Amino acid sequence: MEKYRGANLSFPNTSYSDQTEGRLGPQPVVLDHTSGFEGLLFVDDDLLGVIGHSNFSSIRATTCVYKGKWAYEVLISSQGLMQIGWCTLSCRFNQEEGVGDTPDSYAYDGNRVRKWNVTTTNYGKSWAAGDIVSCLIDLDEGTITFCLNGQSLGTAFTSIKTGPGVAYFPAISLSFKESVAFNFGSRPCSTYPVEGYLPLQNPPAADLMKAHRLLGYIRNILSTSIDIQEERLLERDCALWKLHGEPTVLITLAHIFNHFAPLMCKVYLVEDVLMNFLLGILEGGGSVDEHPLIQQLLHLFWLLMEDYEVNECLKQLMMSLLRAYRFSPIIPDLGFQIHYLRLTTAILRHEKSRKYLLNNELTFDVLRSVVFFYIKTPLRVKEAGLEELIPTTWWPTHFDKEGKDEREPKDESADERLRRRAYERGCQRLKKRIEVVEELQVQILRLLLNNKDKTTGEASRYIFLNKFRKFLQENASNRGHPTALCPPEYMVCFLIDSSVLTPCRRLCPPQLFYNGKVDYFDLQRLGGLLSHLKKTLKDDLAGKANIIIDPAEIQATSMDDLDEDEESGAAQRPFGAAAMGGALARPSWLSSPTLGRANRFLSTAAVSLMTPRRPLTQPEKVKVRTLAVEQRTEEDIEGSHGNDGLLLGRPLEEPDHVVADKSLLEIVDGIVMMYNLSVHQQLGKMVVVSDDVHEYAVALKDTEEKIARCPARRADILDELQKSQKVFAEKLNHLSRRLAWINATIYSKEKMMDVYWLLCVCIRTIEHADNTGSLFAFAPELYLNVAMNAYSALKNYFSPANSMEELPGYEETLTQLAAILAKHFADPRIVGTDIKDSLMQALASYVCYPQSLRAVERIPEEQRVAMMRNLLAPYEQRPWAQTNWILVRLWRGCGFGYRYTRLPHLLKTKPEDANLPSLQKPCPSLLLQRHMAELLSLDKDMAASFLNSVLNQLNWAFSEFIGMIQEVIVSLDGCLNCSQLLNVCATCFDLSVSLLRVLEMTVTLVPEIFLDWSRPSAELLLRRLAQLLNQVLNRVTAEKNLFDRVVNLRLPGLESVDHYPILVAVTGILVRILVDGDRVSRASSVLLSDPCFQLHSIQHLLGEAGDSSGSFGHAPPITCSLCPQPTSEEDLCPICYAHSISAIFKPCSHKSCKACINQHLMNNKDCFFCKATITGVEDYSPTTSTF
After folding, report:
1. What's the maximum distance between 2 C-alpha atoms anywhere in the chain?
2. Of the candidate ranges 49-63, 193-207, 539-553, the one whose mean pLDDT is the lowest
3. Is the predicted pLDDT of residue 82 greater than 90, yes or no?
4. From residue 585, how far is each of 479, 523, 580, 600 by CA, in Å?
5. In whole angstroms, what is the distance from residue 244 CA to residue 246 CA?
6. Which residues cross the membrane (predicted)?
7. What's the confidence (pLDDT) of residue 819?
8. Shortest CA distance to 56 belongs to which of 87, 11, 93?
9. What sign has the CA pseudo-torsion 736, 738, 741, 743?
10. Over residues 721-727, mean pLDDT
11. Most buried among 119, 584, 743, 968, by the most CB within 10 A?
């Protein structure tokens, strides 16, 4: 591509070679990349494709029209914001105004479904990637019209300005990363020609006539044979013609090809003449093998045409097929797609042609070839013929208590059952037609992975491997815009073909990650950067894998990383700087991928290697230099003469398995990387259709219930409800057919098995890499990411059409993944913060559902205990919130008032939400609770450190929450936007509640930690617990305080903030410490003697706050002699919220009541707030403040 910066639009300084009436400009017609553009754009080499690279870029063509009827086509590659149409030379565009925003420019915008000419109105239909827009201008009538996929959208503009000095150029304005391709006539018109309109570029009429005539001669010769004995010509079926025939025929063909070959270098002639001729050969049906004529013709091309001629011909032919496949309309039998795939398969069966296409950078690189593995999803159901395939629609109408649809509800009516079965039959008809396309796509991949075609050089598989790796590198570096050029959601599905990958073990051996045979670019490893690992683990590589890193390489990598080390202040780049699921930052060396630092580490590193066998004597060292990916040979991959190829450097712990086709290991590894880069993201995007069906089904059911309840006298309301019912039903008819397509192409049973296969590959790979000890650090992070994402996809994306429970070995696989999460979420060999957070989140999700929680309980006891020990590590200096949430989920369902699936206070204040799903059903684990109890009971030091850290975090979280609600009130009084503040406030409240629940869990399971004062820290822990509980109660139960005010406001974002969640958690703790018969007096004494204790808090908790006749009604108030009673909320101690501020700390000047600071100084000399060492405490009186 060429990149051009913005300039004012001006008339191009070109000499006009075409004098056709009504048109001015050079031939061929292209985009004006010299002066006719505004903004930053990427323009393709053929000057017909363009990608926006700034806010709103504009560009026009080199040719204009002033008379007659003209048309051009635009192939939509992305469906974002674009304005396509016509403009005059006088139009001036900028980064805000484009085509259609000036007086003499006119545009159609299918993204917003509008037309533009200074003002804008609704017009047309929405477009999608893969659509074709035809732009028509009639300068005789003064009208402009647009067509979408051949269907006229109606006249958009009338009475446009015409006359002397007025001419219109094709033009487009597009936003960042939007892309299109123009066809001004350099190629034959699409399947949507418009009668009466001429293309801006003249078709090569003379060459067309000549090519058709020569092709007719060739066809006649192929259908003719010579009877030498009778000396006469005989007719025969041209399909049976073979190259090895009569010399006279070959000589005649050679003369014809002298004239025919030069014509086949022109794209128009290749697409209009040659491609249609070859497609005609396959029209008879049958398998591609039944049409050998195409193979014979390709032999003939290579024999009678110059290499550059056949190369250009094949290049243009394949590009035309790619374009036709992608932009052809979807029809019920997918006839167009099948037609083009059959011809592609036939061409790729020719060995020499296949290898040329694989080697050609512009023709069949993976970036473009994956288009053949993409089935365009129709956005317009009617045009795709889905109404014919699926005449009866159906959607779920019965929902369980969690809001999920039931697959086969027992109370389904007979009519609903008939509709559902008719819908399922229609889905099966659609599935069978899509399977034909998928089978052709698999055949293409098998041809590309052929490793037996070595008669004409390197086998196709090894060429494809290099292309595939380069494709992955470009995607990982965000260079290729993969989502715009080739949506890859099907790539992983077609590469995973059991018949192709049967010889390969279902894992990637760990030596692949450090022997330099496979390029991982600069993707993050579990242990950090590869250069760092090679320096720190060189002894482990030598001892475990018989690999010795060349000292010169270590020195080179150290020098190469010197700048980065100085910037980061360490030997490693900050880990987790970029998530592996997204695009990596583009490195500066990417303009020359073969010279980058990552390639030097992995591909040109000189390493000394020992044979991985284990003889009794010292093994002989063999020094091998690995090559760059582009330079690798079959021997480098497969190995020979003692060289193990990709399996080089087998660690001692890895069993010695024989792999016949080692190249398949790299393919499997590439599939994993492909899924990590884009496939999982693409899978998730299509779930929105299923969600929309669910939402509309709920809305329709609710509307029907309202119609049934509507009184007959309210005809106006009934009319509006019936209109809504009709809209919802029409939308559901459309969405249910779209969902059928998506379920057949993306969320099918076969695709589910493919993703499950990928999950098993990642699990086995991680297990084998883990067995290597320290060498586990070399494994790329993406394997753990894919394992977690694949499980998430199986659980969330494929249901309810397909159930994960039906997969073979489902429970065993769940258990294996549970063991990985339990072991590695706290694995010290993993250093990246992003992957550690992902593991923690995955484990938190795992313990939230009954089936996956049971899988955690099935892992070996030693691993379960180790997991619980890691979860009970002190909360300081680590991301403790997720850890705490995991413990809460293990407890939820056992605590006091903790069995709800929806927050009870919301059901009271917002009854309309009662039918909506909320929290997951409680599924506590008694087994893991028992392990926790045993650990805390036996290890007194761990119990003390864990509980002190929980109490510290509770103190912090609740203090932050109180501070936040004060800021919320201030911001509301000042009418400020405080949405972010509300989110932080709600988070602090949720953290406080969850920490209280963990304390309740601990008190319930191991009460002796607090109540058995023979334990060293029991008394201190009980006093700290009592202090915090009193502080929480005082702040929450005080009348007309800030907490009450915020709760009563019911602000959006603070729905979870209420008295109920936090008070039941406190009550659960109080009940547990006060019901132990032997020690109840001890706990009561500590609670009552705490300086923060307020009787009204207990009365409020018992519902007796306003009742003076209760058992505590006449009790005198308990006060603290050290602390005067507060006069206003601002004077409250920020620690206990019970007494006035009465002490100021030195030297930091923070304040609290004397009771809190005296309690704190018994154990710690650091300030509550700033951690400064307290050197003194002085009395504080608010009256001393200055005015």
Report:
1. 133
2. 539-553
3. yes
4. 10, 11, 11, 19
5. 7
6. none
7. 96
8. 93
9. negative
10. 93
11. 968
Domains 23-199 and 1132-1179 share a fold: no
- Dist CA 1160 CA 1158 (whole Å): 5
Cα–chain-centroid distance for residue 258?
A: 53
The gap from C-alpha 496 to its chain's centroid, in whole angstroms, comes to: 20
Identity (one letter) of the amino acid at 833?
A: T
| Half-sphere exposure (Cβ direction) of 401: Cα atoms closer than 13 Å | 6
Which contiguous run of DSSP H or E holds residue 962?
helix 940-973
Per-domain residue ranges for the chain? 23-199, 205-373, 892-1103, 1132-1179
At residue 273, what is the residue type?
Answer: V
For residues 117 and 635, give the distance between their C-alpha atoms in angstroms, rounded to a whole number.
64
Residue type, 1077: G
What are the percentages of helix, strand and coil residues in the chain, rounded to 5?
Answer: 50, 10, 40
**Beta carbons within 10 angstroms of residue 507's beta carbon:** 21
Quote the CA–CA distance of 1163 and 1160 in Å, as a whole number: 6
pLDDT band at 1116 (very low <50, low <70, confident <90, very high): very low
Q: pTM of this prediction?
A: 0.81
pLDDT at 1167 over 50: yes
SS3 assignment for 104-171: CEEEEECCCCEEEECEEEECCCCCCCCCEEEEEEECCCCEEEEEECCEEEEEEECCCCCCCCCCEEEE
522 neighbors 598 (Cβ within 8 angstroms):
yes
How far apart are alpha carbons 203 and 271 in whole angstroms? 12
Is the distance from CB of 73 to CB of 202 less than 8 angstroms?
Answer: no
Q: Which amino acid is at 1005?
A: L
**d(C-alpha 575, C-alpha 963), whole Å:** 33
Number of neighbouring beta carbons within 10 Å of residue 805:
10
Distance CA(1038)–CA(1059), nearest Å, equals 11
- The DSSP bridge partners found for residue 778 are none
Mean per-residue pLDDT over the chain, rounded: 79
**What phi-psi label fits residue 119: left (phi over 0), alpha (psi between -120 and 50 degrees) or beta?**
beta
DSSP for 36-48, written as a single string: SEES-EEE-TTSS
CATH ID of 1132-1179, from 3.10.560.10, 3.30.40.10, 3.20.20.190, 3.40.50.2300 = 3.30.40.10
> Can the peptide bond before residue 203 be classed as cis, meaning omega within 30 degrees of 0?
no
Contact 77, 484 (CB under 8 A): yes
Q: How far is CA 765 from CA 501, 654, 784, in A?
A: 16, 11, 10
Torsion angle (degrees, nearest 10) of CA 458, 459, 463, 464: 180
Q: 334: phi > 0 → left, psi -120 to 50 → alpha, else beta; which?
A: left
CB distance 639 to 665 below 8 Å? no
**Token digits of residue 1094:** 């307020």
